[in-house]
Amino acid sequence: MAAPTVILDNGAYHVKIGLASDKDPRHIPNCISKSKSERRKQFIGNQIEDCRDLSALYYMLPFQKGYLVNWDVQRQVWDYMFGKELLGLECPDTTAVVTEPYFNFSSIQEAMNEIFFEEYQFKALLRINAGTLSAHKRKSENPEHRCCLIVDSGYSFTHIAPYYNSQKVAEAIFRVNVGGKLLTNHLKEIISYRQLHVMDETYVMNQVKEDVCYVSSQFYKDMEIAKLKGKENTVCREYVLPDFHTVKRGFVKEDGSKQKPNEQIVRMNNERFAVPEILFHPSDISIQEKGISEAIVHSISATPKEMHPHLYRNIVLTGGNCAFPGVKERVEKDVRSLAPVEYDVQVTLPPNPVTYAWEGGKTMTESKEFSKLTVSKKQYEEEGQNICFDKFDV
Amino acid sequence: MVTCPLSTSYTHCVDLDRVVCGWYWCEIMKMPAKEQTRESGRQKELAQRRVLDSFTRAKRLRRQLEALEQDNFQEDPHANLVLLKKKLPQFDSNEDTPTTKKRKKRGDHFKQRFRKTFHMLVEEEQLSMNEPPNYLTCCMPHSPAPQRKFCAVCGFPSNYTCVACGARYCCTKCLGTHLDTRCLKWTA
């Protein structure tokens, strides 16, 4: 049997991990959390599923602004994931594919090499950008497209990265400093000001965001609808917050049902679409940057002119924020209105934008060239950090 | 009972410690008492109100944006349990004591070498003269489109700006809420 390969899409919020032989990856929260109710225990990764009271969850995150800085926390999460409880890896026999953010700082890269080769003693390692894996996946699905533009909108930020033949065009990669974390925090902030204090409830409000927020393709019209009263207001939703006794998970209240006693309700009106709107207009909360759609056009215009029509024709949306309903339509509409008229605009949203990069890693391990991309432990021992810097294009 | 020499109005008492009477007031100001006694609540309030300069406004805005990057807003619930923790049995203490010991040792060495905050990493990148593109060069420029304006209270499109702090509002009701809650608070 061939040596197993583990694919680790090391996101700042969720780690997507699984063996190349698995069909789907597991989603593990990349954090250590502490609960108010369980005073003696810390929950690593998905151990939090065992915790009954998720109110006022305290997070310790390994990532800051999208880059790995808190190594102690990250190591504990990795130890847990590689260990018996989850995957039970035999690291010395395993090849690892690990993702990294674009333009990762070199000291972080060094630390990664050191940990994976010297501490975990993996047999071979491939460090790669998550977007590159997505581009690879896209190429394998549609070999007729040579260029593709990956939009990777994650927890900490959003990257726009053009690819040519699965090679990234580094000078045209741009970052929009808006990610899921900022959206959740903003939602928390406005709900706390307008309705009830939820500043401590990151976990719950993140669920609210995932359950009811959407991207509007007719922003000002939806604003008008949200102003209406009663039945005419088709935007407004009443969301029942969990109390972790009778209600374990929040849900949207059905129309007309009566409010039960002790039920806490958040009225989500214009917040539903104004929060994800920040992705497209960061200036709405005074972040003076271009939004995703403008960034796509900006990034394409930084590539050689011959690539433009091909990139516009092959825009792929990945990352957790692309799971908002309506993202695809909105990007399509915005880019269409900004792009030159002679180019076709086609936007693709994979069935699961969150795991797309992981799936790309899976297809990459199956390709013939895979073994040429990795650095083996032996090579690392002979040539040290340099070979990693030469070989890994991150 | 004294009569104010400057105005014709009668005042009731003279109290030099507290300025109660119009007459004493007139004496100091050398002004006709009539104008002084006519008080406008609106003007009084206006005089008290401070108008923030652009520097302070920018500072407030920066603080708001920084808050959006925070991981937690509450205190660590285990913060005062540090002493207790030592007495607790470790979960896998009897299973593999040697490995945990080894890890700890490695961790220490690791902490010294790679413990860097995000801020330090960015500084290092600035000094390293790495060829662009890098982290610093790949950020987005300003949008050419004008900034859209939304009410700071209710989130709907807004047409007005608070004179004092520059926040946006859409109607007098929202302005009232804004003045009562956020305007000029947390300016220290």
Automatic annotation (TrEMBL), chain A:
Subcellular localization, per the record?
Cytoplasm, Cytoskeleton; Nucleus
Single Gene Ontology MF annotation: nucleosome binding
Arranged from A to Z, the UniProt key words for this protein are:
Cytoplasm, Cytoskeleton, Nucleus
From what superkingdom does this record's organism come? Eukaryota
Q: Is Nucleus among this UniProt entry's keywords?
A: yes
Database matches in SMART domains: ACTIN (SM00268)
Gene3D superfamilies the UniProt entry points to = 3.30.420.40, Actin, Chain A, domain 2, Actin, Chain A, domain 4
Major localisation: cytoplasm
- Keyword Metal-binding among UniProt keywords: no
Q: Which SUPFAM superfamilies match?
A: Actin-like ATPase domain (SSF53067)
**Could you tell me what this protein is called?**
Actin-related protein 6
From TrEMBL, chain B:
Enumerate the spans annotated as HIT-type domain: 151-183
What InterPro entries is this protein classified in?
A: Vps71/ZNHIT1, Znf_HIT
GO cellular component terms, A-Z? Swr1 complex
Keywords of this entry: Metal-binding, Zinc, Zinc-finger
Know the name of this protein?
HIT-type domain-containing protein
| Highest taxon in the source lineage | Eukaryota
Give the transmembrane region(s). Answer: none
One of the GO biological process terms: chromatin remodeling
Which molecular-function annotations from GO does this UniProt entry contain? nucleosome binding; zinc ion binding
The UniProt entry, under Pfam families, shows: zf-HIT (PF04438)
